[in-house]
Write a structure and sequence with these properties.
By secondary structure, the chain is mostly helical. Helices cover about 50% and strands about 5% of the residues. The relative contact order is 0.05. Bound molecules: zinc ion.
């Protein structure tokens, strides 16, 4: 303690050095020495409290005896714990106050509380008066988050939710309510939460050398197989949640090891694995590329499904309509494959647009064109973005021309349509 209680300062004033003087109020704010001194002092406290192990009258908190835990530190917060009997508490306070006497550091009693249970009201009152503590109750806020041994209620969480929402932006109440509802039920949020809990389960399965894992091992697992034991009913809700997360790995709990890489758990990997897997479509990159006009995107999406109501599909619904293609002067039946690009109208249009951006190639069938586009749109080069844009625009304009000719008897020339596409491309940039 000698080295931390004899701090002295020398100031440089107008280039001249003052004589050194002792510090009365510790270090200045932000002094680089501060964290080192803090660690040194806490280490002193740590060693002083460890001496309680050999004091015969001292009793540990019932849940802390196996690990000989008397205190837990986090940054400058200190949690002291022991059994709720007078002698143990007096001893704990005596050892703690020893630090005050040697270092001059005093606990701020205004922000310190006593959490006690399993004792009579009279005994509790006596202790509070004797130790000058105020009575604390759970849940309490720590670093802005509520700490509780039981599951938090919605009302307890609401102040936190409101604070977060208010910080982001002001939203109408109805919107906030909707967001809260969807956050609670959306599978994405739930999956992310599960992936984060799996990380804790993995730490337990690995018997990580951290205090909380060791504590859970001693309290609940007790050398048994993590896969076999039941979720401890008497444990806090957080611990129960970790144990319950095993169901997400069933039937093969060893799967959890696949989420770890180089002894580090990847929440991302666990999350990705928990998402439903669907067969991949080869035109994924075509539909996902950016800078598309929404109406073009929609019609292309419908064509890709394929869900465009072409005549062959309308006839399946029992509706009788003129089946010939309205775009070319042949009597070919209007189907998706005819419209794209067996039809001379659409074929010419797509061909001209490709030539316009400097691509000389023979236009083939719908599937062949899709395969070609899917392949080239994999890279995000500006040129491929333009090709993808023009393709979506072509599909859209062919479909619009078909609709206006079929239902409104209106006709636009190919040149007009091509001009429109060129204009739209320039607007999108
Ligand atoms: Zn046609």
């Amino acid at each position: 303690m000698e080295c931390v209680t004899t701090v002295s300062y020398t100031l440089l004033i107008n280039g001249g050095m003052t004589t050194s003087f002792p510090a009365k109020k510790g270090l200045r704010q932000g002094d680089p020495m501060s964290p080192y001194l803090f660690v040194l002092v806490m280490e002193y406290l740590n060693r002083a409290l460890k001496k309680l192990q050999i004091v015969p009258n001292f009793n540990y908190h019932p849940k802390c005896s196996k690990q000989h835990i008397t205190h837990i530190c986090f940054v400058d917060d200190l949690l002291l714990c022991c059994r709720a009997d007078r002698i143990s508490m007096q001893l704990l306070m005596k050892y703690f106050e020893h630090l005050s006497s040697v270092s001059g550091l005093k606990a701020n009693m205004v922000v310190s509380s006593l959490y006690i249970s399993g004792v009579t009201t009279e005994f509790r009152q006596k202790l509070l008066v004797e130790l000058h503590f105020s009575l604390g109750s759970l849940p309490f806020k720590y670093l802005g988050v509520l700490l509780s041994a039981t599951k938090l209620t919605i009302n307890q969480c609401m102040p936190l939710v409101e604070k977060i929402v208010a910080r982001i932006f002001l939203l109408p109440k109805k919107v906030v309510k909707l967001a809260q509802q969807s956050a609670g039920t959306s599978s994405g949020m739930a999956q992310r939460r599960i992936a984060a809990i799996l990380k804790l389960l993995w730490a337990i399965s690995q018997k990580k050398d951290t205090l909380w894992v060791q504590w859970i091992q001693h309290q609940y697992i007790k050398g048994k197989d993590l896969k076999e034991i039941k979720t401890p009913r008497q444990a806090s809700s957080v611990v129960r949640k970790i144990f319950e997360a095993r169901q997400w790995l069933a039937p093969n709990m060893d799967r959890i090891q696949t989420y770890a890489l180089d002894a580090k758990f990847s929440i991302k990997k666990a999350y990705m694995d928990s998402l439903p897997q669907y067969p991949k479509v080869y035109w994924k990159s075509l539909i996902l590329s950016k800078g598309r006009i929404p109406k073009h995107q929609f019609i292309m999406w419908m064509a890709l499904q394929p869900r465009l109501a072409t005549i062959d599909i309308i006839q399946l619904w029992g509706i009788q309509v003129q089946s010939e293609c309205v775009l070319c002067s042949t009597d070919a039946e209007e189907t998706l494959t005819h419209l794209f690009f067996e039809c001379s109208y659409s074929k010419t249009k797509w061909q001209k647009l490709l030539q316009w951006i400097g691509i000389q190639r023979q236009v083939r069938s719908w599937n062949e064109e899709l395969a070609w586009l899917a392949n080239i749109t994999r890279n995000k080069h500006p040129r491929t973005v333009i090709i993808a844009f023009i393709f979506a625009a072509t599909v859209y304009h062919v479909w619009m021309e078909r609709n206006s000719r079929r239902f409104q008897q209106l006709k636009k020339t190919t040149t007009e349509r091509l001009k429109e596409i060129a204009l739209q491309l320039h607007i999108v940039g």
